[in-house]
Design goal:
eight-stranded parallel beta sheet, about 15% strand
Length: about 280
């Protein structure tokens, strides 16, 4: 597994997303086994949120990680914007920790911008970091204007990462946000890195260039999409899957080295934007 430096912390370039996991009894055991398979094969960064199934995603992760050394995992969760005030945030964090069966998070994210003044949100996250209940804090669904505001408030520079939708078919942040984050050494967590594979992502893989490059690397189109997302060495991709087979394919994608020719062809097939685009959100 390719390892990236995440603000001084080494984590795998491809981890696990867990949206829509844990709520269906019919698939629970398979999903739990898939999470455990991923951990055993190097996908030790796991992303969740209190919103996902109203805690179901955190619960299945907590069930799945029992018996694994906690220090080997990088657990990420997120809180609702309406839990951004101090007491609500700590209560939300405590509930997440309880569901996950751990006494700390590696990274706690403000799920999307809300009504609480950003300087207060940062102060509250910083206070939780000082307690040791979270190792780091960050943000999610922040665009360039949000990030500029973030860095203007006290302790805003302590942000570890920003999590946004990013894939080869959704490149809006390539116009301004992603170059800015690279300039300021703020890593990206890319959610939906193969888009929604069963809907929009399924249309993307019909592209002839993507198919040609996949064939060249003896890989699937989805693996090329993942390899493209993590190409800069500063991005954590968190694809979601309920299948151990697909989990292994995701993990193997981290070892694909796209050539300059590959990247040029993909840029031609999926051009980066030439003007500002609204932030994509699923």
């Amino acid at each position: 597994m390719k390892i990236i430096n995440f603000k001084g912390v080494e984590i795998p370039a491809i981890g696990m997303g867990t949206w829509h996991m844990g709520s269906d009894k019919a698939t629970y055991d398979e999903q739990k086994a898939t999470i455990q398979y991923g951990i055993n094969h190097g996908a030790t960064a796991i992303d969740t949120a209190e919103q996902y199934g109203e805690g179901d995603s955190e619960r299945i992760i907590g069930d799945a990680i029992k018996g694994f050394p906690r220090e080997k995992l990088f657990l990420i969760s997120k809180f609702y914007p309406f839990h951004a005030e101090r007491k609500q945030m700590e209560k939300a964090l405590d509930n997440s920790l309880k569901r996950l069966g751990t006494d700390y998070l590696d990274l706690y994210l403000y799920h999307w911008p809300g009504g609480t003044p950003l300087n207060e949100v940062v102060a509250n996250m910083q206070a939780l970091q000082d307690t040791g209940k979270i190792k780091h804090w960050g943000v999610s669904n922040f665009d360039i204007s949000d990030m500029l505001e973030l860095l203007s408030v006290p302790n805003g520079l302590n942000v570890m990462a920003n999590e946004d939708l990013y894939n080869i078919g959704s490149r809006g942040i390539d116009y301004d946000l992603l170059p800015w984050q690279r300039e300021h050494d703020i890593p990206l967590i890319a959610y939906a890195p193969v888009d929604q594979a069963d809907t929009r992502g399924g249309a993307i893989i019909q592209n002839d260039t993507l198919t040609e490059i996949a064939s060249r690397h003896n890989a699937t189109e989805y693996q090329i999409m993942l390899a493209w997302v993590i190409r800069d060495g500063h991005t954590l991709a968190i694809p979601q899957t309920n299948s151990q087979k697909h989990m292994q394919e995701n993990i193997d994608a981290a070892n694909i080295e796209l050539t300059n020719d590959d990247l040029m062809l993909l840029d031609q097939a999926f051009p980066k934007p030439t003007s500002k685009k609204p932030l994509d959100i699923i």
